[in-house]
Design a protein that fits this description.
3 helices; mainly alpha
């Protein structure tokens, strides 16, 4: 789906469906099961912020933190 440009996000908003896992656990499981790269995981998280119902001004700090995190870990999108 990512390769086709879809705005993929991974969420944990339904704990009963996700076996009460937190988002970090869900992301790790998705990475392992789907062989997602670090860059793909960053893209997925960027997609989530882009899809959030928040203003661009509210979104910017989150994206800046995501970019800083990715850069610190040597991940390029």
């Amino acid at each position: 789906m990512l390769d086709h440009g879809l705005n993929v996000t991974i969420n944990s908003d339904d704990p009963a469906y996700m076996n009460s896992k937190y988002l970090t656990e869900v992301l790790v499981e998705a990475q392992v099961r789907s062989s997602l790269t670090s860059a793909e995981l960053v893209r997925i998280q960027r997609n989530a912020f882009d899809a959030a119902w928040i203003s661009p001004a509210e979104r910017r700090p989150y994206l800046d933190r995501l970019d800083a995190f990715a850069k610190a870990w040597g991940v390029t999108a």
